[in-house]
Amino acid sequence: MTAISEKIHVVQGDITRVTVDAIVNAANNGLLGGGGVDGAIHRAGGSEILEECKKIREKQGGCPTGEAVITTAGRLNAKYVIHTVGPVWQGGKHQEAQLLRNCYQNVLQLADQYHVETIAFPNISTGVYHFPKPLAADISAEEVSSYLNEHKQSKINKVLFVCFDEENYRLLLEKTN
Ligand code: AR6
């Protein structure tokens, strides 16, 4: 069996250019797209993704913070986009850390339900939501390793952290080595 650390990879780049089963999106509660990685994913993936997001909105009124929903990946080189909503950093006393942990856990659970084997994460909440990058890096590395440790039956065999900026890239490299 592959060691967990060997399943986790850190790269610097644009998440819309990777080839995996599932690309994770850092969305907002409304699920109708936005800036940052969300904008990039919708632009590169095309309107099919937004159409499915609209259907999810009609059914359940969007996506609560810390939770995740799944759609097609449209034109991206992936089968699915898993949209999760990270917390807005408000100083740290509003359960931001726990909510970010929930994002990683809920995304991985949903990925397993859809038999995903390879998945790429952006650095959720570290852009316009202003979550401190060092704490976000700790949380993301911890939650991915603990999930894989606790779910030995999981088919997930590759988790890519796709870091857009140098600081996140450096932090994630430190945390995953
Ligand atoms: N590939 C990988 N990472 C990226 C890319 C990309 N193409 N573009 C940006 N990032 P953000 P948030 C990084 O702001 O903080 C949106 O408007 C970026 O450098 O995209 O969770 C949503 O609609 C940063 O490290 O998401 C929400 O309203 C990380 O992705 C809100 O922003 C997350 O930055 C969510 O804020």
TrEMBL record:
Domain Macro positions: 1-177
UniProt-listed Pfam families: Macro
EC numbers for this chain: 3.1.1.106
UniProt keyword terms in alphabetical order: Hydrolase
Signal peptide location: none
An example Gene Ontology molecular-function term: O-acetyl-ADP-ribose deacetylase activity
Alphabetized SUPFAM superfamilies for the sequence: Macro domain-like
CDD domains (alphabetical): Macro_OAADPr_deacetylase
Name used for this protein in its record: O-acetyl-ADP-ribose deacetylase
Organism: Scopulibacillus cellulosilyticus
